[in-house]
Here is the input.
Amino acid sequence: MNVRYILMGIQVFLSILMIITVLPQESKQNQPQVFLEDNASQAYFKPKGKEAFLNKMTKIISVLFFINAIALVIVMK
Here is the structure.
């Protein structure tokens, strides 16, 4: 089996995971716009629970997605 087919499969899998982690997140526009000027109040509104988990997973999956895309470009040359 060729390496590029494995990388393409991983790319499809990562793209599906990214869709699954991004869609349930609320946009910044849906959140109340209270105390935006005060930086100290921002610490109070840190994401917790599901939001924090989805944020971390989105960052991890997106980094893996781009690393895999670069590896796929290198293999295709």
